[in-house]
């Protein structure tokens, strides 16, 4: 197990550097998103994760530009990630989705652009989850065809790196067999209640970086687990810091979501200590295969990844 104590970034397979710590903005409502980003940038975060479907990119764009104007950061210091939503998988819609995100974020390019989910939904206006008679309207657009469009976006310079999110091993294997450009990142749910060792090993072997979303776990979160609390006490850290350290020590990026400035700052203090092997293994031993994000309404789709 590599010791990433001093390391704050990893190299992606295309030579780009990605900061291991980012701020997640899923479910960050528009009112608080801007303040959270400003607090995060002030605390030293340079990796910001968002998505077309989060509906908060306008606010994030404002926050980033406020900090650029103040001279605190320049654009090249930042690593901004967004995601292509399921309703925009049709060839003609991929560019539309990216253009909207770039407009809202007031950016000329993204550092990383991900296919948010392998399943395609019908495009009905700007509905995120188009329904008819209580059923989600899916389509059978192949994520392999979407990937070809992602490769074109990268070639155009509008996105520096491309990757996927919520893809399983079988889907990654299929993608790798036809991709001209292999995915640089797979962003998935990871925490000690959902260890996914096989997926981690698969990605490591093929030089695909992992980003852990929900790295602190689901609502009944591991932070209150007695083992996590005792490990935290041992290192004189918070349970959240221990759980984030658990990931970055494996070279896995983390994007904890927080809107409280004190938590945002606390989460940066994970690079000056290391978990001993026995504590790392003990945390791994909490695995319950417990997934918080499942999108059950898509279960019957052939490309459903879980």
From TrEMBL:
The record marks 83 as: Lowers pKa of active site Tyr. It is an enzyme of class 1 (oxidoreductase). GO terms for cellular component: apical plasma membrane. The active site is at 54 (proton donor). Substrate binds at residue 116. Residues 21-287 form the NADP-dependent oxidoreductase domain. Its EC number is 1.1.1.2. Its main location: membrane. GO terms for biological process: glucose homeostasis. Keywords: NADP, Oxidoreductase. It catalyses: S-nitroso-CoA + NADPH + H(+) = sulfinamide-CoA + NADP(+); S-nitrosoglutathione + NADPH + H(+) = S-(hydroxysulfenamide)glutathione + NADP(+); a primary alcohol + NADP(+) = an aldehyde + NADPH + H(+). GO terms for molecular function: alcohol dehydrogenase (NADP+) activity. Pfam families: Aldo_ket_red. Belongs to the aldo/keto reductase family. Catalyzes the NADPH-dependent reduction of a wide variety of carbonyl-containing compounds to their corresponding alcohols. Displays enzymatic activity towards endogenous metabolites such as aromatic and aliphatic aldehydes, ketones, monosaccharides and bile acids. Acts as an aldehyde-detoxification enzyme. Also acts as an inhibitor of protein S-nitrosylation by mediating degradation of S-nitroso-coenzyme A (S-nitroso-CoA), a cofactor required to S-nitrosylate proteins. Also acts as a S-nitroso-glutathione reductase by catalyzing the NADPH-dependent reduction of S-nitrosoglutathione. This is alcohol dehydrogenase (NADP(+)). The lineage of its organism: Eukaryota, Metazoa, Chordata, Craniata, Vertebrata.
């Amino acid at each position: 197990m590599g010791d990433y104590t001093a390391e704050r970034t990893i190299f992606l397979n295309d030579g780009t550097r990605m900061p291991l710590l980012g701020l997640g903005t899923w479910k960050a409502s528009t009112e608080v998103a801007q303040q959270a980003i400003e607090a995060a940038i002030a605390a030293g975060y340079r990796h910001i994760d968002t998505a077309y479907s989060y509906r908060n990119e306008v606010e994030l764009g404002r926050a980033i530009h406020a900090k650029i104007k103040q001279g605190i950061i320049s654009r090249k210091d930042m690593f901004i990630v967004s995601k292509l939503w399921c309703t925009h998988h049709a060839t003609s819609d991929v560019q539309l989705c990216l253009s909207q995100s770039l407009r809202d974020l007031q950016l000329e390019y993204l550092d990383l652009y991900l296919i948010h989910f392998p399943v395609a939904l019908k495009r009905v206006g700007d509905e995120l989850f188009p329904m008819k008679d209580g059923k989600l309207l899916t389509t059978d657009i192949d994520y392999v065809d979407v990937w070809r469009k992602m490769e074109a976006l990268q070639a155009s310079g509008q996105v520096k790196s491309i990757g996927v999110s919520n893809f399983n091993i079988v889907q990654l294997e299929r993608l790798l067999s036809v991709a001209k450009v292999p995915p640089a990142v797979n962003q998935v749910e990871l925490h000690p209640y959902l260890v996914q060792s096989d997926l981690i090993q698969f990605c490591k072997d093929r030089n695909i970086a992992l980003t852990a979303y929900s790295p602190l776990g689901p609502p009944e979160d591991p932070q209150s687990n007695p083992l996590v609390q005792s490990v935290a006490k041992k290192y004189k850290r918070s349970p959240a810091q221990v759980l984030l350290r658990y990931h970055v020590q494996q070279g896995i990026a983390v994007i904890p979501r927080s809107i409280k400035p004190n938590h945002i700052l606390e989460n940066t203090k994970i690079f000056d200590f290391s978990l001993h092997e026995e504590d790392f293994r003990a945390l791994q031993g909490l695995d319950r295969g417990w997934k918080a994000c499942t999108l059950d309404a898509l279960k019957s789709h052939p490309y459903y990844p879980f």
